[in-house]
Automatic annotation (TrEMBL):
Regions that span the bilayer: none
Domain of life per record: Eukaryota
Keywords in alphabetical order: Glutamine amidotransferase
The keyword Transmembrane helix belongs to this UniProt entry's keyword annotation: no
UniProt cross-references to PANTHER family, sorted A to Z: IMIDAZOLE GLYCEROL PHOSPHATE SYNTHASE SUBUNIT HISH (PTHR42701)
Protein name: Uncharacterized protein
Molecular functions per Gene Ontology: imidazoleglycerol-phosphate synthase activity
InterPro entries in alphabetical order: Class_I_gatase-like, Imidazole-glycPsynth_HisH
Swiss-Prot/TrEMBL GO biological process terms: L-histidine biosynthetic process
């Protein structure tokens, strides 16, 4: 469920996709839907340390 700040479904990264799990490192964000909490950060690099992702 997460914090409920971003609507979507939480799931574990699929290790067969080529992404190391846990996913650790710097990556650029790709924002696909308008969200007040994610405003003005599209394309910026952020540091990830986790094994889960949110999909709309």
């Amino acid at each position: 469920k997460g914090l409920g700040l971003i609507p979507g479904v939480v799931g574990r990264f699929d290790s067969s996709s080529g992404i190391r799990v846990p996913h650790i490192g710097w990556n650029a964000l790709q924002i696909e839907n308008d969200s007040e909490i994610l405003q003005d950060i599209d394309g910026r690099h952020v540091y990830f340390v986790h094994s889960y992702r949110v999909t709309p």
